[in-house]
Each structure stands twice: as structure tokens, then as C-alpha cells.
Amino acid sequence: MGTKLSACPCGGGDYAACCGPYHNGAPAPDAERMMRSRYSAYVIKLEDYLLATWHSDTRPAAIEFGDEKWLGLEVKRHLQSGSNHATVEFVARYKIAGRAYRLHEISRFVFEDGRWFYLDGEFRD
Ligand SMILES: [Zn+2]
Fold first, then answer.
1. 46, 74, 78, 118 — which has fewest CB within 10 A?
2. Is the pTM of this model over 0.70?
3. Domain range holding 24?
């Protein structure tokens, strides 16, 4: 997609060896990788990728990017149940107008047609 990054926004190392391949069409091998690649896609505003990896049952019509400056991602837990369902708990930190916030979410993913999709998420305090 023409994005030239060195360090991956998700903190997983070199972008070309981390989330880059998924943004360019490779299937993420597990829900944690999918979650990381979606976080990175928010950071670099890849709307098409975010929509394409959102399950059709819950997918919005468009992604609304806010004024967040994303600071980093910490994956706390990745639990796979059976071969088609997984949850990923994470904390993402960001700033808006200089003020720091954290997003703590447990996301649900489903595996269909050889790909992981984001289904929905539940916020934590
Ligand atoms: Zn990454």
C-alpha cells in the first residue's frame, strides 16, 4: 500500500516483517497477529484494511479516525477456543490534545474462510 515504515506501530519490530505483510494481503496466522495488524492499521489509517478484517455481521460502513496520537500497544492475553474463535485482551495508549488515555479492551475474533476477523470488543476499566 505504499506505506514506508521502519518500526511497526504495534511494537513488534520491523514493519516489513511484522504487520506489513498482513496489510498487503497475507492472512494473519492467529487472532493476536490480526489484532496487532488492526492496531497498526488504525495508527496509519488503513481504512480498507480495517473494514476488510471486520466481520460482516458487525462491520461499520466506514471507519471514523479521530485525533488520537497512538502511543503503543500491549497485548495482555490471547486465548484461542477451538479452531474458530479467539479473544485478545490488550491495552492501547494514545493522546488527544496532549492528554493521555488508555483503551483496555477484550476483542473477539472468528476464523472464517481461512482468515481471522474482528467481531466485537468489550471495554475494561
Ligand atoms: Zn506490527
1. 74
2. yes
3. 20-124
